[in-house]
Design goal:
This protein has about 350 residues and is an alpha+beta fold. It has 2 domains: about 160 residues, Aminopeptidase (3-Layer(aba) Sandwich); about 160 residues, Aminopeptidase, CATH 3.40.630.30. Helix content is about 30%, strand content about 25%. It has 10 helices and 13 strands. The strands form 2 sheets. The protein has a 9-stranded mixed beta sheet with strand order 1-2-3-4-5-13-6-12-10. A 4-stranded antiparallel beta sheet has the order 7-8-9-11. The radius of gyration is 21 Å and the shape is globular. The two termini are about 35 Å apart.
Length: about 350
C-alpha cells in the first residue's frame, strides 16, 4: 500500500504540543480504520454520546466521501505509535451561496486538555483555508463569498465546546434529539383527502430521495447532497423501505417519514427503538396535516412491531413548526445539539 504523507505546510500552526512521543501524521489507508473505531468508542463513553459504529460502517462511509481526500484532509495524533485521536474535514457550498468548511475530531479522553485537540483543530482550519484559496483562484467562489468553519457538538461535550469558544467559534444553531415512549397512547391521524400511502419499489427510491431533498431546501444551512450521499444511503444497514411512510398524490410524492431501526444500536444499548427520521412534506401539500398523519402512522407501526420508543432529531428553529408538532405527539427533548461557526 502506498502511504501518502501530509505536507507539513498544511499544519497550522506547524507546532506540536510538548508531549513526549507525540506525532501528528496523515491517513495511511484502511489500516487506520480499527484505530479510528477504537478512538470513537473511547470518546463516546466519556462524552455520553450513543453510537454503534463498526469497521464496516467506517469503510462504507469512507468509500463515499465528497469534497474530501482523506490522504490530505485527515490528521492523526499518535503517542509512541498508538493512535489517540484523529480528525477529518470537508467543504460544501450551501443553498445561500456560503462556503462552509466542516471539520470534526475524536480524542481519547486520557489525552484531552493537553493541546492535542487544539493542534488538530488548527490543522483542519489551515487545510480548509488552503482549499478555499484554491477555489477562489479557480473562480469557483468569489471574494465576496461568505466563508465559515462549521463544527457540531452535543451538550455533554463540554471540553469540545470550551475549545471551540476559545478558538473564536460561536453557537449559531441549536437542535434537539427527542424520544417518545410508545407505551403512551397514540392517536393516529387520517391522511389528507386524495393521498395514499404505498410501498416504494426499488425503481422509485430515487423519486423519494429527490422529493425529500426538495422539501428540505428551505431549511437552515441546506446543502444539495452529492451523488455520493445517495449511494451511501442505499447501502446503509438500516435502509429498509418497508418501514417508510410515503404519501403519494398519484405519481407525485407529497411527503414521507423514512423510518428505520438501528439494530446494532438497540443491541448495544439494550432497547427497542425505531427512528422516525426523514420527515418532510413538499410545499404544495403543506398545512394539511400530512406530517402529523405520517408521523402518527409511523409511531403506531413501530408499536405494533414491538418497539418501545421512537426517536428523532429536529432543528429547534425549524420554520415549519416541526418542534411544536413533535412535542404535540409526545416527543420530549433528551439532548441538545449545537452548530458552532467561525468566519474567516
Amino acid at each position: 500500500m502506498v502511504v501518502h504523507e501530509i505536507n507539513s505546510t498544511l499544519i497550522f500552526p506547524p507546532a506540536n504540543p510538548a508531549i513526549s512521543g507525540l506525532a501528528l501524521r496523515g491517513f495511511q489507508g484502511e489500516s487506520d480504520y480499527p484505530k479510528m473505531l477504537a478512538t470513537i468508542n473511547a470518546s463516546k463513553v466519556a462524552d455520553q454520546i450513543e453510537r454503534s459504529e463498526t469497521l464496516e460502517d467506517i469503510a462504507r462511509n469512507y468509500a463515499h466521501l465528497h469534497h474530501c481526500d482523506p490522504f490530505q484532509d485527515m490528521i492523526f495524533a499518535e503517542v509512541y505509535g498508538e493512535v489517540v485521536g484523529y480528525g477529518r474535514l470537508w467543504w460544501e457550498i450551501n443553498d445561500d451561496g456560503d462556503w462552509l468548511g466542516f471539520h470534526f475530531a475524536f480524542l481519547h479522553p486520557d489525552w484531552r486538555r493537553k493541546g492535542i485537540g487544539k493542534s488538530m483543530l488548527r490543522f483542519s482550519e489551515g487545510r480548509l483555508r488552503q482549499i478555499a484559496a484554491g477555489l477562489l483562484a479557480e473562480g469557483v467562489i468569489a471574494e465576496s463569498t461568505s466563508r465559515y468553519f462549521d463544527v457540531g457538538a452535543s451538550a455533554p461535550e463540554v471540553g469540545r465546546e470550551a475549545l471551540l469558544s476559545k478558538e473564536g467559534y460561536t453557537p449559531v444553531r441549536y437542535g434537539f434529539h427527542m424520544v417518545r415512549p410508545l407505551s403512551e397512547p397514540i392517536e393516529v391521524k387520517p391522511l389528507p383527502e386524495g393521498l395514499e400511502v404505498r410501498l416504494v419499489p426499488p425503481e422509485h427510491y430515487r423519486t423519494v430521495w429527490d422529493a425529500a431533498q426538495e422539501a428540505f431546501r428551505d431549511h437552515w444551512g441546506s446543502v444539495e447532497p452529492p451523488e455520493e450521499e445517495y449511494q451511501k444511503w442505499l447501502k446503509e444497514p438500516a435502509f429498509n423501505p418497508r418501514l417508510w411512510q410515503v404519501a403519494w398524490d398519484g405519481d407525485q410524492v407529497a411527503g414521507n417519514v423514512l423510518n428505520f431501526i438501528n439494530e446494532k444500536e438497540n443491541i448495544e444499548y439494550n432497547r427497542k427503538r425505531g427512528y422516525t427520521e426523514g420527515i418532510s412534506v413538499r410545499r404544495p401539500w403543506r398545512r394539511r396535516g400530512l406530517a402529523r398523519a405520517l408521523l402518527t402512522r409511523s409511531l403506531q407501526m413501530f408499536k405494533d412491531m414491538g418497539m418501545e420508543e421512537a426517536a428523532l432529531g429536529v432543528d429547534s428553529q425549524n420554520l415549519n413548526g416541526a418542534l411544536n408538532l413533535y412535542e404535540s405527539v409526545g416527543f420530549r427533548v433528551v439532548r441538545r445539539e449545537v452548530v458552532y461557526r467561525k468566519r474567516f
